[in-house]
Amino acid sequence: MSKKLKEIQKKLNKQPLSSLSKEEIELYFDHRLQNLLLSKKVLVRNELEYLLGETGPGNLRIEPDLFRLLVDKESFVQSPFESIPEIKKLKTLKETAEKHIEKNINASETQELLIKILDNYLKKSEVVSKEPFIIEGELNRVPITCLIKNGGWIFPDIELFLFLKSSQEQKRFPIIIAKKISGILFPVFKGLSIMGLNTYKILLPEKSREIIEAVKSDEELLRELKYNNQFQFIDKEFVNEIIDERYEGEPLKNFFEVILKNHIDTYYRNFAQSKIKIADNFMGTVSQFRKNKATRGLIAGYENKQNLLNSFMP
C-alpha cells in the first residue's frame, strides 16, 4: 500500500469522505475497485455503484452523484482473467442485463405498473410528469404528490427542491419514493415534516426476471449480479394490492398501509403550518431552520460535498 493511500485511510478514520480532495478520492476509488475485482473478477457499472455506495460503513460510501464523476466505463474485469471464456461469458451476461435495466427502469410499461400499485391506495390519481415521475392523488382525503425515482437515488438537488416548493405552493403533501434517499436529506425531511421511503429495490416488469436471473451460475467464476437481491419483479400479485403472503413486510406495502395510514394527517398538518418557505435549493431552505449545532453541521456537510463535486468540473 502506498504512503499516500495510508494517509488517506488515516484521514478517513477521523473525517468524512467529502474531506478528500479530487486527487485523493480518485486514488481511494481505484484502491476500492481493485480490491473488489480480486473476488468478483468482473463488475458492471451499476453493480460497482451498489457495492461502493450501499454496502460497508456509512462514512466510506461513495454516493452515485460522486461515483458517476469517477467512472467512465461500463464494466471492469480483473486483467489476468480477461481472456478466460467463462469471464467473457459473465461479462456479456451482466452487460446484457444492465442494458435491459437501463431500457426498462423508466419505461412507460414500468411506470404504468407503478401507477396501478399506487392506485390501490390513492384516489383521484393522476400523472402530472413522466420525467421526473410525479403522481398526484388523495390519501385519507389528504391531497398528496409523489416523486418516484424507481431504482435511483434522491439527492439534495434543484429537481427535489423545485418539487417540494411546488408541493408547498399547491398545499399538497409531498412524498418521496426512491431506491435510496441521500442520508443528508432525512434531517431536512424531518425539519419540513415530509415523508420519504427507501425501497432498496429496482422495480421491473415480470418479463425482466429471466434476463436478470440468467446472471447466475453454479460455476465458481460466474458470479451473479451483486445487487441481484434488490430487484422486485412486478407480477399480478404484486400489482393487485400486494396481498400475497410473500410480500409481507414489503416496503411499499408497509409504507402506505401502516406508516402513512397512521401518520399522514399529523404530518400534513405540520407541513401545512410550517413557517419555513421552501426554496428551490438546499441552502435557501435549510438556512431557515433553527440555528443550532445540528443545522450548522448539516450545512457544513452539504457544502463539503458540493465542494468535492465541483472540483471535478472543468
Description:
The chain has helices spanning 3-12, 22-40, 45-53, 64-70, 85-104, 108-118, 158-169, 185-192, 209-213, 236-239, 251-273, 282-286, 293-310, and strands spanning 42-44, 75-77, 123-130, 133-139, 142-154, 173-181, 195-198, 202-205, 231-234. The radius of gyration is 21 Å and the shape is flat. The mean pLDDT is 91. The protein has 314 residues and is α/β, with parallel strands linked by helices. The longest helix has 23 residues, at 251-273. The strands form three sheets. A five-stranded mixed β-sheet has the order 3-4-5-6-7, sandwiched between helices. Strands 1-2 form a two-stranded antiparallel ribbon. A two-stranded parallel sheet has the order 8-9. It folds into two domains: 3-105, no CATH class; 108-309, no CATH class.
How does the SSE layout of this entry go?
Elements lengths: L2 H10 L9 H19 L1 E3 H9 L10 H7 L4 E3 L7 H20 L3 H11 L4 E8 L2 E7 L2 E13 L3 H12 L3 E9 L3 H8 L2 E4 L3 E4 L3 H5 L17 E4 L1 H4 L11 H23 L8 H5 L6 H18 L4
Parallel strand pairs: 5-6, 6-7, 8-9
Antiparallel strand pairs: 1-2, 3-4, 4-5
